[in-house]
Amino acid sequence: MIKLVVIGAGDHSRLNHLSALQRYVRERPGEVVLSALCDLRRDHVESVSRQYGFERSYTDIDEMLAHESPDGCIAITPVSVTKEVTVRLLAEGIPLLIEKPPGANLKEAEAINEQAKRSGIPVMVSMNRRFAPVIAHARTAVAGRRIEQIRATMLRTGRVEPEFFYGTGMHALDAMRHLAGDIGDYTARSREVEGVRWYSVEMEFIGGARGQLDVMPTCGCVSEQYELLGPDYRVQAQFMGDGSGTVNTWADGKAETKVLRTDETREFEENGAYDEAVEFIASIREKRQPYPSPEMVLQSVEICEQILIDATGAPPCYP
Of 271, 272, 306, nearest to 291 (Cα)? Predict the structure, then answer.
């Protein structure tokens, strides 16, 4: 069986990565063993490890590595220590799934990429929108068709942190790259809305498509929408952060609505975290590089960092 360890037992890890692993183990018995969970808070990590089915818990990475021999590690760490933890684990030769953004800035992301390439150890970046069912369905719907226009909107409530566009808005921009390819040029504008920056980015993709991204961190709801348009078709994919996901397709004069949810659908399934875990585990089993690699997401990091610098006069800051 594949032995996995996880670093980080905070809310994001529990709601997404640990929930995804718990479902995987339940539905595919005998494939994966959750060997150990590591978090700085002893009482917390002991409780969470029991809740999600881990065999052991630790509060120190070095202690965990001294006692465990994992086949892979999922590292859900604060952005400020992502590079440090990644380099430490690569030195142990452990395949990794690391949280996005892959570093506190472009320099750190480039360093992680170079270290991964030098070591030859597989590293995957958690850009889970690439695995979101609504986006996967939209991508399939336009297969073989030319994308002329792509639009994305990310809406949130109460996200006032200055780094939001870099740390979370990156998801939407990266999903657009997943759908339409690399970006050739872009123009970004921002404005303050009651002290919080809202962003609008116009893009030209190398493949010929044009794009528009709007990121509004404090508009009072949680939603993401992606729209693809081309000759004789329109595809609109949306999910709301509550398990609901819908894809509307208009093609060749016909309309279709696909509702990608059930009463049991949860956020970690809707946003792609589950299928992301499936890909990471498959890459370990098949001894290959998982998708996406640090190199694949570097352009997303570079553009989001520069947009933030241009808007605020300062790079991302993660204490």
Answer: 272
